[in-house]
Amino acid sequence: MGxxxxxxxxxxxxxxxxxxxxxxxxxxxxxxxxxxSFVPLVIASYMWLHYKYxxxxxxxxxxxxxxxxxxxxxxxxxxxxxxxDGLSFPMFWLTTLLSFISLVASxxxxxxxxxxxxxxxxxxxxxxxxxxxxxxxxxxxxxELMLLPMYFLIGIWGGPRREYAAxxxxxxxxxxxxxxxxxxxxxxxxxxxxxxxSHTFNMLHMMHKSNQSAWLTTFDVxxxxxxxxxxxxxxxxxxxxxxxxxxxxxxxxxxAVSVILAGILLKMGTYGLLRISYPIFPDxxxxxxxxxxxxxxxNILYGAFxxxxxxxxxxxxxxxxxxxMGFVLLGMAVFTTAGINGxxxxxxxxxxxxxxxxxxxxxxxxxxxxxxxxxxxGLGVRMPVYMGIASLAFFxxxxxxxMTGFIAEVMVFIGAFSVxxxxxxxxxxxIVITAAYMLWTMQRVFLGKLxxxxxxxxxxxxxxxxxxxxxxALTIFFGIYPLPVLNxxxxxxxxxxxxxx
Amino acid sequence: MxxxxxxxxxxxxxxxxxxxxTAVVVLLIGLFFQKVQRxxxxxxxxxxxxxxxxxxxRMWGKDITGFGGMVGNDNFTIAFQMIFIIAAFLAxxxxxxxxxxxxxxxxxxxGLLLFALSGIIVMxxxxxxxxVFLGLEILSISLYILTGFRKMRADSIEAALKYFLLGxxxxxxxxxxxxxxxxxxxxxxxxxxxxxxxxxxxxNVLFVAGIILFLVGLAFKAxxxxxxxWTPDVYQGAPTPIAAxxxxxxxxxxxxxxxxxFVSVAAFSxxxxxxxxxxxxLLTMTIGNVVAIVQQNIKRMLAYSSIAHAxxxxxxxxxxxxxxxxxxxxxxxxxxxMNLGAFGVVSYLGISHKVENLRIESYRGIGYKYPFxxxxxxxxxxxxxxxxxxxxxxxxxxxxxxxxxxxxxxxxILSVLNAVISAYYYLRVVVAMxxxxxxxxxxxxxxxASWGVGLALLLAVLGVLYMGIFPSSLMQLFQKTAELISxx
Lengths: 501, 488
Fold this sequence. Notes:
- The complex is a heterodimer of chains A (501) and B (488).
- Chain A contains 21 helices and two strands.
- Chain A has helices at residues 3-19, 26-49, 89-105, 113-132, 136-145, 147-157, 162-190, 203-206, 219-236, 245-252, 255-280, 282-287, 289-309, 313-333, 337-368, 379-382, 384-398, 404-417, 421-446, 462-480, 483-500; strands at 65-73, 78-84.
- Chain A has a two-stranded antiparallel ribbon with strand order 1-2.
- Chain B has helices at residues 14-32, 38-59, 75-102, 106-125, 129-147, 154-185, 190-200, 205-222, 230-237, 240-264, 271-293, 298-319, 322-349, 366-369, 371-385, 391-405, 409-435, 451-469, 472-483; strands at 64-66, 71-73.
- In chain B, α15 packs antiparallel against α17 (409-435).
- In chain B, a hairpin with a 4-residue loop joins β1 and β2 (71-73).
- Chain B is an all-alpha fold.
- Chain B has one domain (10-483).
- Helix content of chain B is 75%, strand content 1%.
- Chain B is globular.
């Protein structure tokens, strides 16, 4: 068993152990789940140390690292084929990090803990599986598998309207993945394995024009397949107008689940576009790029405006995610080195920042039991440490220099400006609006007169600090020294751009 | 005058004989030893099933025919028979829970279950329309009685009467169809029909009418729309394990005959027949799914869902290629596990007090009270909806791939949309179990589950997950059997 499989399936081992622990033994359940999510983080970090930066990945198996490749369902030529390249590795590592942090943040879950932690570990396995899969079928299985724990985590441990939110989340994403399934089948029957001559689900084979059937090379077919696949991924991102499941899911989900939802799941949409849609349909990607850029700008502005109007702190953060994912889309749409690298760096950076924001919302919700922005005020006096960390996170989300968000957004703007001038200028207003709502929110929550209800509110505790400090530190570290990530992503992304041009 | 004695080869019907003899034994034990434990009867029945599985295993790959070519067992039919025996096995285990207070005589119950199975086996191995009819009648008559087995209950009696009347009517169609076919072709055998069609095509109106009547008879058994009306009432009234067995056995047997007919008569792939079946498949799954959404009673919901699944399977039959046939087998196997499992949970949860908990509402909150039953139910629901990593997903994938390969793009797209619609009502059960508070004032107390139910559910869950995660060995097996349908 290779390192990837070990990392991916290690949490499953934890599930098996948890199932044998009595449900009364809460401490053991929590410790097992934390340990079994910490080990993948250690392995993933070890893999980072042994990562070979110059390998391109994308469409050649020999350019992938830590590859494992066996037959899984030979009747359909489906392989267990996993590997990592610079596009997937940052997300892979981020998943292990955020899963570990989320499990620590789940310490206070108060009902059916056994089920919660088991499902959370299953969620981690399925997310890691999505990022490492290089066989389309395997990718699809992990992609769908992810739905199940997420559905239960929102539906059982969520807020008052959890049932509605869970079923909406499930049906939206299921509708998207069904489109993906159809495209996958269409590709399967029209792609030949160059060695054996049989049909194949191998993504890398699908990317080479020489393996595609004549039907698959006609423009209309490619356009429709691309659009179907795009909708499947767009629901996950979520791209306006497919975003309506997101605020419901976020508001109802428990804190740790929101962290994963915003930190990892949303990125899977853009990851899927980069991993699958772009290399298989480079011509269509180019053909539709202007539309994608427009979607990106709509996301940026719409998300920001709606975030500003929110009264609920968590909903505000949720819409800020919609806005920030818009930068990823804009960066992806321009096919310049700076743009696409900025987009992927934004995926990584936003994962760190939004995780912090949701954790911070959780901290205050645990104390005040509500999330009305207007219901707070003056908390800075009573919770100075909390205010300090919250300011860091808010500034990071605004894109202040010295933190990752700044680097990502600047790269996206530089990359996009040379291609779509007007759109980029419009998008830049998003930064202003973001700063406005972030500052306004901070002001209403932390400054002003202290709401007398919160006279005795306690400051952030050690466990909460333990979840937030690593994220804050990484945000600053990669904000000042982004090269470990940028070096990793630039080789495959530049190669991807040459494929498209 | 010479008397031609046909070559009789009892080994060709050994599995059916074994099941029938077991049925008689069980019946007699039940008759003479009234005090005997029902577990014992179930175990005797199960031993009979295992022996007949062994018989089938022995016949594997040998293509044994008998009775002057009236019955035959190629690997394809053996695979079908094995699936039905597994279904009967699970149903027998499940009924251990149920019989307690309601069924007067256990011997008759298990005896009839086994007779129904033997009918299916005869039907599947028949190479002759009369044998098919014989099997169908053995199956149907056993099922009529089993449906009305809870004779103190009005809904059970109503269901039995309804099933009997409509069933007898459809049998009439079937028989009339056979008569017309015989009248025009001069043969009862599939081989004879095949050579007649090869020579004459579908030109004779009487022959076409015969085929259509025959198909209508089968469509009734398989509950294709618009011949599905009886299904919800019958499933609701029948004892739950029997409804479960019907949903797999009676349906599956009809599919086996349908496939044999289509394989032997190649001319069925002409445009007219293809369109007819295309429409039938789409109607069946769509109406099944749409009507299932509004059901409040879980047994009725599962009945409509079984109609929808018949539609999916028909897509595989329509594909008409080897892949389609092996997909039908694979799906039927998966469906056996997931549907019998779901009915099993319904049967287990249904027995509190004298009132059955069959409303989906009454499942609220059981996820915490009965975690194992609820977990099993969740697995079955997700599998029926076709979510990975379950057997239902791989099965649908297999069926739809086969149809795509045969070029039915739109039908596949519509089927996939149907699968999304179906997710809604399957999820409703999961939502009720895990996400809603229990109904106020309703105490939901169940007696301890019998070992039989526990074992059946465990096997079904393992089956669903095994076929979902490691499908390849079974897939290869079915693919091989579908390639070699030797006996036409």
